[in-house]
Every structure is written in C-alpha cells, then in structure tokens.
Amino acid sequence: GTRVVSGSDDYTLRLWDGVTGASIGDPMEGHTSYVTCVAFSPDGTRVVSGSQDSTLRLWDGVTGASIGDPMEGHTSDVACVAFSPDGTRVISSSEDSTLRLWD
C-alpha cells in the first residue's frame, strides 16, 4: 500500500500517506510511554505497536482505531514487533531478553 505508520515519543502512532506525506486521521492514542516499534500486517489491514510501557497494541490499519486490549506479558521495553507471513500471529522481542508469540 501507500500508507506509512510511525511511532513517537509522545506515546502515539500516526498513519501517513506515503505519496503526499499528509497525516491520515488523528494520532492513535493508547500507550503510556514511548512507542518504540510498529509494523503493518501483510495485508495492510492492521498495525501492531510496541512500547516502553512493555505492551503491544493492535490497531485498524485503515482507520487507526484501537483493536482489543493491550497485549501484556513483557516486563521491559518492547524492542521489535512483526506479523507472521499469514498475518495471524505477532512476534515481539523485548529488553527483558524474551521473544513472545501472540495469537
């Protein structure tokens, strides 16, 4: 697609038009600390974010709406997030020296 997602030290994510550079919609709010990593699902319909608040969150990749509750389990900053190739799972790594696989 032509959308880009960014995470910020203001605790939000933003969707951007990759062609024009214009912001799409309002900032995506929910984390309680810096957003350290973000990724689109393979089909572009969802976004996953990780934060220094030790949680992951899912978002609608088109509207920016939050999906479900925060994913809790790490005990330190989330360093990296990615979707599985089929988009059904998320994997995350953390400063707590663990990898987690989420359904």
Automatic annotation (TrEMBL):
- Determine if Transferase is one of this entry's keywords: no
> One Pfam family of this protein, by short name?
WD40
Which sections of the protein are WD repeats?
A: 1-17, 28-60, 71-103
Origin organism is: Serendipita vermifera MAFF 305830
Give the domain of life.
Eukaryota
Q: What is this protein called?
A: Uncharacterized protein
Q: Tell me which UniProt keywords the record has, alphabetically.
A: Repeat, WD repeat
Asked whether the keyword Transcription regulation is assigned, the reply is no
